[in-house]
Design a protein that fits this description.
alpha+beta; Arc Repressor Mutant, subunit A; seven-stranded mixed beta sheet; four-stranded antiparallel beta sheet; 42% helix
Amino acid sequence: MTGPARTRAFLHGKDHRAIASFRIEDALSLPMVYLARAQFCGDPFAGDAPAAHGVACFHGHGRGRYLAAPLAGFTLLASLRGGLHVESNDGMFNLRARQFVCLPTGSVCSVRSRPQAQWVALRLSLVFLSEISKTRAFRSLPAPLFLPVTMPLSREMLRCGAELMRTRIDEDAPAAGEQLSSLLLAALQAQSPCQEWMDRAYGRSERHRRRVVVRLLNARNRILNAPFMNHDLRTLAAAARYSPSHFLRSFRDVFGKTPHGLLTEARMAMARELIRGSDLAIGEVAANVGYESRHAFSRLFKRETGVTATDFRLAACAAQQA
């Protein structure tokens, strides 16, 4: 790897390049790359040809910026500590500590980490996903394997990830393969609460229903990632590639609320955080969450929370001083 994007690879604390093969069930052999440090600008995976056909793993420390290449496949991003900002085609995913998201690699524009952050990125190529779908553990699972939704990191994911990071894949490649397989299965299990969305989606098969949910999530993510923006029905329907009427009906059926209801809920959650954690005036809070009228915001806030914004701030201050 050359140029300004130069980084150093590591294995078990040693600063050296390490590309090796490992086995995931049924003698599946794919390359894996470990890279360290996020103090660069560029794509750490772009210079490694094996990563285009297998899996690349990047462990980031501290403040940095990772610019993703528009390759096919999926990227799993997990924030172990601190915050992680993932800019995508569907807006900015703001991952908190111990959260993860899995997105199509081509939709990930960049990743920015905070000074004290620790995070991990797994790039899963289409070749890898095609091969792993033939193994016993993944054969019965419909595509796409992962949904583009932010979820908490489970203890099992943390355990599998820690074991994978500790493994010297140049000496114990089969063990690394088993640990990666366990990590991906743990990620699927962590997304299991989303199964109720599939159960409510329209479709003749699990694969069809899963793809319907993925399309609706494109619109849902745009609302949650930028609740302060105006999201009209036509734009959201276009993001999901549905007609406005079909989109509205499907969105309500799957998520249990309309897009407008979700937008209001996300804005109120953002407003509560701003009122609780900042000294912004109520009118400034209203503007920051997308309302031009302070009075309209105040009425809506009281309707949603049961108290006025001023009383909510007083209660929050009292709780902090207690």
